[in-house]
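Review form for a predicted model. The reviewer records the input and the model, then writes brief findings.
Reviewer: anonymous (R2)
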Amino acid sequence: MPRRRPRTVFATAFVMITGCGGSGGGGDAAAIDAFGGSENPPAVDAWGSENPPPPCRFVGDTCGECLEGPPGYAAGTACEQEVCAVDPSCCARGWDERCVELADRQCPDARCADAVTAGGFTSVTYGRWGGASFTSGAWLSDPDLFIDAVAWADVDGDGDPDAATAGECAVRILRDDGWAGGVLTRVGVFEDLPVAGCDQLPWTERFGGHRARWIDMDHDGDLDAVFAGTGGAFWVRQVAGGFERAGDLVPASAGAIGDLTLIDLDGDGDLDAVIGFANEPARIYRQGSGGWTRDLTWQADGAAAAVELCDLGGGSGRELVIVGESLWAYYLGGGGVAGQVFAGVPGGFSDGDCGTLATGAPMIAAVSYDGTVRLVDATGQVAWSSAVDLDPPVTVPAGGIDVGDLDGDGDDDVVVAAAGPDDPQPIHVFWNQGTASPSYVHEAFDDFLPGHDMRRVELTHLGAP
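Model under review:
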């Protein structure tokens, strides 16, 4: 049986927010209240009040380390000090997904990953881990066919996870108003239709969103949102508690984008973007006074479904990992890509994520199109395979993958969301057994929302109702 810490199963309910909202059209956007049409959001700062609250402001919960946030988000906590000693960028650049995962591993009082979430056919769904099973619901119904990606962060500093979603036609930002009577409530504060007419039949043009990410793009101390897909990549600025479209990173004419990540490669104070194109090699786009331009001096070895910044060397820096036609890892330095950590791992992959083995050694988890889940170590060797190291062998429908300590036992587990609308489409969890030699137990759970496929999957902290 999987090695899991017993926990209480909480009953949950859900609220669906329907409607595409807005008239759509070529990038025009407004900050709106629950998609109701109000173009004047309350004039509040990023924390939702006139003054930021003190550190460790979430009484009875975590101190902020379990959700993504801007620089200083977890300031003043012992957990922040421990995480930043391992990865200084968590204090200097922002509290991102890697910092949350480090907190989950390094800080004894942090219990971060308590839910699995996934975009999918007409909805975003969630499943809260209760110790033996998931309690699930759908909190967003989307009329534009699918939501491919959802990204979580505490945008307003209230301790609740706010969401950015990238879908077929629309991108959205939803603020979490917390649990009320067992109901997970969301308020829509931004919506945009990047492609004019995408919400109208016969749907000849679509944005085709594949990734949403949170990051402080303009260095003002607030989180902004970045969206990418077939229709290019752009960012949305947080202003006075609301959001407004700020500008393009990559135009649609550059090609379909599978994923992207942002980091200041050249130390000039501006973020640069590593753009993982779906049908051509990944490239770097640099930010300058004239906007974003493609760096012609480097390209990756192939196309990308996922682009991640991972700590593969055990030091304070991060390496660039690209998962797609194959799996590659690159050193960063000297203003750009400084060499290859390891050459491509054979196989086409639909998604990948960073994590650690039970020994603490870094690894990359990736799911291939043939359904095999592979864990690749920092040298490019396959340390574990679901098709080789499980008896009987296990393959899953290729979909999204994420890594985190779901059962709270101190080891990174691997979660795969199966793509495809056919029933049943379970969530697959590979429970880390905590042994020196990689060992995992596979368990499949019923689909969170029957008839709705699962796409890019994310572990997050939803908190208790």
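Findings: The radius of gyration is 20 Å.
Further findings: The longest helix spans residues 97-106.
Recommendation: see findings above.
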